Every structure is written in structure tokens, then in C-alpha cells.
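Researcher: I'd like a candidate sequence for this fold, 174 residues long. If you have to choose between options at a position, lean toward the conservative one.
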């Protein structure tokens, strides 16, 4: 990258960091070009983007975007770093990265910001194994609706018994 292009790159990256629902820094050491292309393709399908960033440029953009200090530390920003960023579902890119890492044992999480909160490597791995928001919503609705269905079926059973008794009574008297 030319020196004249760097300020514009930092400015664009700053805007992306400000509008993102989540971004994750990963160590992509060992990923072949073909593997990178496959990972980028999978991430694009869910509205996420992966790009390789220079640590110094990311740090500049991070400071301007007021990213947490833990994310910008020298221990995190060392070695090859790729940025996975999304403005959509904040957990979906983690799930894609996790599945990809299971298949190829690469890349490795560094740190990330999910819905405005700093997450370390361990927290990112835990979040990556969660079901999607839609599935969690469905499970919650199912858990809330289950007792109501039980109540309705119990009440229906009592009404059916009452009808049965009334029919039997009407046969005996009729």
C-alpha cells in the first residue's frame, strides 16, 4: 500500500469499526490462498467481510473509532492479523470461523468486539458454539408456550369427560 493511500484506508476502516455489530481479529498463519478464498466466500454469504490488515493501521483506526484498549494491545496486534467484520448478526461470523477452524484447524481467534463488548479468545470460542439468534428465539418461545399447551390439553380432557358423562346420562334417561 502506498503511503498516500494509508490515511484513506484508516479513515474507511474507522467508519467500518464504528458501524459494525461485531468484529474479530484472527491469526491466519498457515492459511493458503485457496483456504482464504473459501473462508471469505463463506463469510460473504452471511454478510461478513474478512480482510488482512496491518497491525499499525488497525491500531490507528481503532484509536479513532474508540475501540477498547484490550483490543489494541501489542500482544493482540502482533503477527499476521485478519479482520472479520459484520454489520449483521454479530454471532454468525464466529460460527463460520469456528466451523472452518474445525475443518482446517485454522485460523485462530485473537480477540473481538461483539455488540460493543470486548471478548477474549475463550469467550469468542464459547459464543461460536451457541445456536443462532433465530434458533434461540424459537427455543424461548417453545419453552414459554409449552405450559400453555399442557393447560389447554388438560382443560380439553376435562371438557371431554364432562361431555361423555352428559351423553351417558342422556342415554339412561332417554
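Model: Candidate sequence:
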Amino acid at each position: 500500500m502506498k503511503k498516500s493511500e494509508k490515511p484513506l484506508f484508516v479513515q474507511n476502516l474507522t467508519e467500518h469499526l464504528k458501524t459494525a455489530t461485531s468484529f474479530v481479529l484472527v491469526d491466519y498463519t498457515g492459511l493458503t490462498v485457496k483456504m482464504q478464498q473459501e473462508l471469505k466466500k463463506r463469510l460473504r454469504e452471511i454478510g461478513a467481510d474478512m480482510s488482512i490488515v496491518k497491525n499499525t493501521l488497525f491500531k490507528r483506526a481503532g484509536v479513532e473509532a474508540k475501540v477498547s484498549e484490550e483490543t489494541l494491545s501489542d500482544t493482540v496486534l502482533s503477527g499476521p492479523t485478519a479482520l472479520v467484520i459484520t454489520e449483521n448478526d454479530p454471532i454468525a461470523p464466529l460460527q463460520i470461523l469456528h466451523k472452518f477452524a474445525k475443518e482446517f484447524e485454522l485460523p485462530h481467534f485473537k480477540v473481538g468486539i461483539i455488540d460493543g463488548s470486548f471478548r477474549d479468545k475463550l469467550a469468542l470460542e464459547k459464543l461460536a458454539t451457541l445456536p443462532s439468534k433465530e434458533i434461540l428465539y424459537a427455543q424461548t418461545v417453545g419453552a414459554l408456550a409449552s405450559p400453555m399447551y399442557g393447560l389447554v390439553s388438560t382443560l380439553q380432557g376435562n371438557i371431554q369427560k364432562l361431555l361423555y358423562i352428559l351423553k351417558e346420562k342422556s342415554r339412561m334417561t332417554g
